[in-house]
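pasting Putative telomerase-binding protein est1a for the record, 469 residues
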Amino acid sequence: MLTFIYLAYSMMALLYETVPNFEDTWIECLGDLGRYRMAIEDEDIRDREIWTEVSRYWYSKASDKAPTTGRLHHHLAILARPNAVKQLFYYTKSLCVEIPFKSARDSILTLFDPIINGTQTRLQAIDLNFVKAHGILFITSNTDETDKALPKDRDELMAEYETAKSQFLSHLDNHVARTTRSWMEPGALVAISNCNAQLEYGKTEANTHGNANVLMTAILPESDRDTFMEDSTEDKPTPSKVFNEASDLAEQCDAIISRRYGDPNVLPYLNVRLSFMKFITGNEAAIEHVQDCFPWALVALMLNSLSISFQNHQRIESEEFPRPSDRPLPEDWSLRGLLWTDKLFPSDWFTSDKVDDDEKTFELASMTEQRKERVLWLGYQLTVLGKWLTYDKQSKQFSVTPEFQKDYPVYASEDATMSGKEGSVSHSSTTGSTATLDQGTESSMTEKDDGDAPTVDDDVSMITEKAES
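structre below
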């Protein structure tokens, strides 16, 4: 077997070099052979890791050439083990691109089943709870009980979902503060997974747990929509319980992250979520289902905290995509190809296909300012219609319309962080970066008592004081 794989790999490598007309085919074949070689390696862990990297290299190269092909993202999900968050990202992406890989609905269960059954214990608690919450949402949405029964009673599953969601959200703020820059890449992947969950992981067909996802039916082309909705029992799609739960999970995550004023490590997360909202707000049928489950007020305050130190506002007050550099941000590569990033990037944004896989995630010092500009630009795009956010070109400040002004609960770990009881962790922790608000901002948050959960009004006062100083 080994002899065959080595011989086949050598032949494919030769064809790749000598027959460029079929380059895409040779690249994927090389990835397949690397994956097969990895799969049969049981003795030498080092050899297994080497072949995993070889296979990942070829599949990444292939996905750069065909970013809307779900099959390639599925293969990358298999190679992402044991990183469960990255696996979740790749699996969900393989279902939420223009050419989804339907078989991923079965193989994704190899990630979810051990976690839901309680046999997976190697993950960090926060990662385990996050993936478990998504696993339960996926199973309850995509399992057709005429073909396959749920692994547990539906009520029991939803009770476990509530526990996992609560555990994840209650530790999220401290986790971000503790991991600092290390959370930048996972933060973007968490945001993308949450967005894909709101699409019910690309659900386009009715089953025993409801019709096609309301956002998928809204964003798909008319011809595809007619095909996918042929089994639907309703003229107008209505949000399912899974969609509502996924939207609530995303909203609560957004609220926690949006309160981390001055923390540059949450900018990749915000970049992703605001990109999603920019796409959704451009579709009237989609935004009506999402507009009430997004923390507009907190996002406006986060944007104001970024706007205070930003200099070139003319660049964000434009419809033109900001290009301070021709190098895509690391999370741009993760966003590329998704249904909801269609037309977000300029057509030549990813022309640097020669960029190595490692270089795509390499953080440059200038990227903090680039992300700040991108997030502010996305925020400005959300103000164009004036329905949710508004922007004052004189004061350079964002505000929320009265209809969408509301407060959000603060989870226990957030409250502990703000009250200053965990001395090593602050609400605006930004170890390794200078792009923070001043100490006055931090102290104003640590002066709160345990029982004084900060409201949007508290946050408004803090940002206003900073703007005036």
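The first helix runs from residue 2 to 18.
Residues 420-453 have pLDDT under 50 and may be disordered.
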